[in-house]
């Protein structure tokens, strides 16, 4: 299964830190691309990842839900998939591998936490869980920096 990724950057900013943006069960959508665009306003470049690839994501919610369920049943396969994707993205010439963080929404949040637990060299991760109240516009985030072990709740990322 191929993965897909879109680099979103401000070409006038040289050597911006990179934020990997992982999707929920729907596959990469306009929401992740819009979030990636917002990150450029804060001094980052972003890579909106589609873990499922165009073939699965193009099949709609039924296909992406099945793919996600498969990864949830086989976390080792998910771990291998994440490592493959991360290694490919970190090797991209536009990416400074020493300045990469990852964020994820719902299923993507689980993915970025798995990357952190796996010891991958990320500066930090932030997961945005599915809201428990669908009418609420508040989405509590849990953010972690490499090595501090202290959860950061709702703190925005800042370029350094």
UniProtKB/TrEMBL annotation:
Domain of life according to the entry: Bacteria
Gene Ontology molecular functions: hydrolase activity
Region feature Disordered, mapped onto this chain: 131-160
InterPro entries assigned: AB_hydrolase_fold, Dienelactn_hydro, FrsA_esterase
Pfam family, one: DLH
Residues in Dienelactone hydrolase domain copies: 3-128
Family: Belongs to the AB hydrolase superfamily.
Name under which the protein is recorded: Dienelactone hydrolase domain-containing protein
Species of provenance: Mycolicibacterium vanbaalenii
Lineage: Bacteria, Bacillati, Actinomycetota, Actinomycetes, Mycobacteriales
């Amino acid at each position: 299964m191929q993965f897909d990724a879109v680099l979103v950057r401000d070409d006038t900013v040289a050597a911006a830190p990179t934020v990997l943006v992982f999707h929920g069960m729907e596959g990469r959508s306009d929401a992740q691309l819009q979030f990636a665009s917002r990150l450029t306003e804060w001094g980052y470049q972003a890579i909106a990842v589609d873990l499922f690839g165009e073939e699965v994501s193009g099949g709609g919610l039924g296909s992406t839900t099945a793919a996600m369920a498969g990864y949830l049943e086989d976390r080792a396969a998910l771990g291998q998939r994440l490592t493959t994707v991360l290694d490919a993205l970190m090797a991209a010439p536009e990416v400074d591998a020493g300045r990469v963080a990852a964020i994820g929404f719902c299923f993507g949040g689980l993915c970025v936490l798995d990357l952190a637990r796996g010891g991958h060299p990320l500066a930090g991760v932030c997961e945005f869980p599915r809201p428990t109240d669908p009418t609420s516009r508040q989405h509590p985030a849990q953010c972690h920096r490499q090595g501090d072990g202290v959860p950061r709740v709702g703190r925005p990322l800042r370029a350094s």
